[in-house]
Design goal:
Elements: E1 12-15, H1 31-36, H2 38-44, E2 48-51, E3 55-56, E4 68-72, H3 79-91, E5 95-100, H4 110-117, E6 129-131, E7 139-140, E8 148-150, E9 156-159, H5 174-190, E10 194-197, E11 221-222, H6 224-227, H7 233-243, E12 251-255, H8 264-268, E13 276-278, E14 287-289, E15 292-296, H9 301-318, E16 321-323, H10 333-337, H11 345-356, E17 361-365, H12 386-397, H13 402-412, H14 453-467, H15 471-476, E18 478-481, E19 489-496, E20 499-506, E21 512-515, E22 521-526, E23 532-534, E24 537-540, E25 545-550
Parallel strand pairs: 1-2, 1-17, 2-5, 5-10, 7-11, 10-12, 12-13, 13-16, 16-17
Antiparallel strand pairs: 3-4, 6-9, 8-9, 14-15, 18-19, 19-20, 20-25, 21-24, 22-25, 23-24
C-alpha cells in the first residue's frame, strides 16, 4: 500500500520540454529527449518529474495555450512516445506529473472555434462572452492590454485574463466542468502520478464585471482583484477535488497566487483542495508585483528572511509546502539573489542549501543544479516570452528609457530559465545539432552538465535528504527559525523528537560571525571548502551555507 502522503518524501524536478533535450535535431526539445536523459535524472537522485505542457498547442505561450487537452503537440512527439516515457520512468522509479491548464484554452481549441462560428452554439457557454459596443470594463490582462477582445463581425467581446489567444473558460457552466473532470480522470487512468495545476485561483471571476480605478498610464486596472481567488471559488475547487483527485492516490500542486495566509488551511489542510501549493510571497521579493517588472524593490536579507519564516510557519501550521527558488516563470536564482561579483559555484550551492532543507517537498528547475545564470540579451527582438515583450513596452509607456526597460526585462524575463539545457561544451551545448529555438546562455561552454561542482553538490543534497543519516529529520522534522543571528544570516533548525539539524546561510556580500553555542559540530554539508571557527563562533564567508548537528546536543522537549 502506498503511503497516503507519499509526495512528502519526493524530490521533484521540473522539465521545460522545449529546452531540455532535442532528440531529432529540429532545434526543439521533445519527449524522446526526456526519455534519453532519464538516466541523468536517476543519477541526480530525483524521484518525480513535472513536465510543463506537452499538449497540442499553437505555442503562443509555449504550451500554456492548449488546443487539445488529450493530444500531444507534434513538435514534442506522439502519445506513443509519452506512453513509452511513462513506462521507462516507472522502471527507474521516477514518477511523472503533468501540467494541468484549466483556467483557459487556446483560441484554436475546437470548443472556442465552435463558439465563434455560431452565437447560438452551446460552446458559447464554455467561455465568457459579453455583448456591447465597447469593452465591458477597464481590466488589464496579466500580459498587458485589455482583458477583452472583440469578435470580428459582432458587437461581442470575449474575456482573457492572459493573452488574447488564451480565452478563459466559464467555470460557472456545469457542463464545461464535467468535460474538464472527464479529461483529468482519463490522464490519471493512464498512470501519471498527479498534476501541477496552472493559475488555478483564476477560475472564479466576480460576476459584476465592474470597472476599477486605473492603476497605470494606459487607463486600465489589473484584473487580479476581480479574477483571482474570489468568493465562491471554494465550490469549484471542492468539486474539482471530489470529481477527480480524491479518486486517485495522486499528488496535486497548486499554482495559487493571491491566496491569503489565513486561507491556507482550505487549500492544503486536512481535506484541502490540493496536496501542496507554491507560495510566491518570498520568491517575488525583487518586484512589487510579479507582472510589473519595472516596479523594482531594494529588498534586504532581513526582509527576505522574515517572508521566508512567515511562509514556512504558515505552511507548517496548515499542511505541506512546495519549496522552490526557480521555475519557468522566474529568473535564475544566482542572478536574482546574489550580487554580481559573488555569483560563483559556492554561492549557487549556498542558495540551493538555503531552500532545499526547508520543511516541504523540494522542487528543482532544470539546470538550476548547474548553477545557471541569466542570459543577457541586447535587443527586445531576442526575447520569445510574451510577458517580457509586454513588460518592455509597458516600461517605456510608464516613462522609462528603452535601455532601462531592457534592463528590467533582462533581470526578470521568463526566458532566463527557458534557455536550452547545456549538456556539454560542444556547439549548442549538446542540446541539439542545429540552432535551438531560443539562444543558449553565453556561459554554457564553461557551465554545463560535465564536471560541474554545483551538480555534484546537488547530488549530495538530494542523497542527504533522501537516504542520509538525518533523512527523516530533514523530511519530517518541524522547522524553527533562529532569532539570535545577524540580519544577513538565515538560520533554522529541523527538529524530530530528540534530533536536531541546523542550517545557517549568510545571504550577503560581507563576512558574518555567528555564535553556535556548541563545543563541536558534525558538519553534513558546506557550500564552501572551509569553515572558519573561533571557539563557539563560526565566521561565514559571503554567501556560505552550512548544514550540521551539534555533537552531544539533546533536545528532549522537541523545541
Amino acid at each position: 500500500m502506498i503511503n497516503k502522503n507519499w509526495w512528502e518524501k519526493e524530490v521533484i524536478y521540473q522539465i521545460y520540454p522545449k529546452s531540455f533535450k532535442d532528440s531529432n535535431n529540429d532545434g526543439v526539445g521533445d519527449i524522446q529527449g526526456i526519455r534519453e536523459k532519464l538516466p541523468y535524472l536517476k543519477e541526480l537522485g530525483i524521484t518525480t518529474v513535472w513536465i510543463c505542457p506537452i499538449f497540442t498547442s499553437p505555442m503562443v505561450d509555449n504550451g500554456y495555450d492548449i488546443s487539445d487537452f488529450e493530444g500531444i503537440n507534434p513538435e514534442f512527439g506522439t502519445m506513443a512516445d509519452f506512453d513509452q516515457l511513462l513506462k521507462d520512468a516507472n522502471k527507474l522509479g521516477i514518477k511523472v506529473i503533468l501540467d494541468l491548464v484549466i483556467n483557459h484554452t487556446s483560441d484554436e481549441h475546437p470548443w472556442f472555434q465552435a463558439a465563434l462560428k455560431d452565437k447560438e452554439s452551446p460552446y458559447r457557454e464554455y467561455y465568457i462572452f459579453k455583448e456591447g459596443k465597447t469593452e465591458p470594463n477597464n481590466w488589464r490582462s496579466i500580459f498587458g492590454g485589455s482583458v477583452w477582445e472583440k469578435l470580428p463581425n459582432e458587437d461581442t467581446y470575449y474575456f482573457h485574463a492572459f493573452d488574447k489567444k488564451q480565452p478563459d473558460l466559464n467555470w460557472e457552466n456545469p457542463k464545461l466542468r464535467q468535460e474538464i473532470y472527464g479529461m483529468i480522470n482519463r490522464w490519471l487512468e493512464k498512470g501519471i502520478a498527479g498534476f501541477r495545476i496552472d493559475s488555478i485561483t483564476f477560475i472564479k471571476k466576480d460576476q459584476d464585471f465592474s470597472s476599477l480605478p486605473a492603476d497605470g498610464v494606459d487607463g486600465l486596472a489589473s484584473c487580479k482583484s476581480k479574477t483571482r481567488n474570489r468568493p465562491g471559488i471554494e465550490r469549484f475547487l471542492n468539486e474539482l477535488k471530489e470529481e477527480t483527485f480524491e479518486k486517485y492516490n495522486c499528488v496535486t500542486v497548486g499554482e495559487a497566487p493571491g491566496v491569503p495566509y489565513e486561507e491556507y488551511g482550505d487549500f492544503i489542510g486536512d481535506g484541502g483542495y490540493f496536496s501542496m501549493i507554491f507560495d510566491f510571497n518570498y520568491s517575488d521579493i525583487d518586484v512589487e508585483s510579479g507582472s510589473d517588472w519595472f516596479k523594482r524593490t531594494n529588498w534586504t536579507t532581513k526582509e527576505f528572511k522574515e517572508k521566508l519564516k512567515r511562509s514556512q510557519e504558515v505552511l507548517q501550521a496548515n499542511g505541506w509546502g512546495a519549496n522552490f527558488i526557480e521555475n519557468h516563470d522566474q529568473p535564475r536564482a544566482v542572478s536574482k539573489f546574489i550580487k554580481p561579483e559573488f555569483q560563483t559555484n559556492e554561492a549557487a550551492q549556498a542558495i540551493g542549501m538555503l531552500y532545499f532543507f526547508l520543511r516541504g517537498t523540494p522542487f528543482i528547475y532544470q539546470a538550476q543544479e548547474l548553477g545557471m545564470q541569466n542570459a543577457e540579451r541586447k535587443i527586445i527582438d531576442q526575447f520569445n516570452d510574451i510577458s517580457s515583450i509586454d513588460n518592455y513596452y509597458r516600461s517605456i509607456q510608464e516613462g522609462f528609457t528603452p535601455e532601462e526597460a531592457l534592463g528590467f526585462v533582462n533581470q526578470r524575463s521568463r526566458d532566463n530559465t527557458r534557455t536550452p539545457f547545456p549538456w556539454d561544451a560542444s556547439q549548442y551545448g549538446g542540446f541539439s545539432d542545429t540552432t535551438p529555438w531560443l539562444s543558449m546562455t553565453e556561459e554554457y561552454p564553461t557551465r554545463n552538465a560535465q564536471s560541474n561542482p554545483v551538480l555534484a553538490h546537488y547530488k549530495q543534497m538530494i542523497a542527504l535528504r533522501q537516504h542520509g543519516a538525518v533523512s527523516d529529520v530533514l523530511t519530517n522534522g518541524t522547522i524553527v527559525f533562529l532569532e539570535n543571528v545577524p540580519d544577513n544570516v538565515i538560520a533554522y533548525k529541523r527538529v524530530l523528537k530528540d534530533r536536531v539539524v541546523y542550517c545557517y546561510t549568510n545571504l550577503s556580500d560581507t563576512e558574518e560571525l555567528v555564535s553556535l553555542d556548541a563545543g563541536s559540530i558534525d558538519l553534513f554539508l558546506n557550500s564552501h571548502d572551509d569553515l572558519v571557527s573561533e571557539t563557539n563562533d563560526v565566521k561565514l564567508h559571503p554567501y556560505q551555507s552550512v548544514l550540521f548537528k551539534k555533537i552531544n546536543e539533546v533536545n528532549g522537549n522537541g523545541n
